[in-house]
From TrEMBL:
This is protein-tyrosine-phosphatase. GO terms for molecular function: protein tyrosine phosphatase activity. Keywords: Hydrolase, Protein phosphatase. It comes from Halomonas organivorans. Signal peptide: none annotated. It is an enzyme of class 3 (hydrolase).
Length: 158
């Protein structure tokens, strides 16, 4: 099973989701059964570490994002991943616009796994510390829901 988190630049929301989800997989004993990555729609931050504010919010919850590096979405992601999870509606529209006809991956909003099928993870980039804390809470809730959904999928396929 492979999961890709997608946001605009891959320095705030999607790397936070990658780190948080990895931690939840580890706690659930599923880390060896699910591959996780993140990327951005655009090229602006390729090769850069997550935003320092995102890293600080993550560290406050015991997550270290410092080894992650931003990358841009590529065409092969649509065949490499089973789930491509967008942080907001614009990201999802960009994914759908690039989706190949033969792609059978699930494309959707990440917060659907927290019970919010139409809600976006807000982009905290232009805000303050509180925005990053809000994002952490939303991502944590969606990560828990996604772990449970994947656990059911993996058990059904076993």
């Amino acid at each position: 099973m492979r999961v890709l988190f997608v946001c605009l630049g891959n320095i705030c929301r999607s790397p936070t989701a990658e780190g948080m989800f990895r931690q939840h997989l580890k706690e659930a004993g599923l880390a060896d059964r699910v591959d996780v990555d993140s990327c951005g729609i655009g090229p602006w931050h390729v090769g850069k570490s997550p935003d320092a504010r995102a890293q600080a919010a993550a560290i406050s919850r015991g997550l270290d994002l410092s080894a992650l590096r931003a990358r841009q979405l590529c065409d092969t992601d649509f065949t490499r991943f089973d789930y491509l999870l967008a942080m907001d509606h614009d990201n999802l529209a960009a994914l759908n616009a690039r989706r190949p006809a033969d792609c059978d991956a699930y494309l959707g909003l990440f917060l659907a796994f927290a019970g919010f099928p139409d809600r976006a993870v807000p982009d905290p980039y232009f805000g303050g510390r509180d925005g990053f804390e809000e994002v952490m809470g939303l991502i944590e809730a969606a990560s828990r829901g996604l772990v449970e959904a994947l656990r059911r999928d993996l058990e059904r396929d076993a």
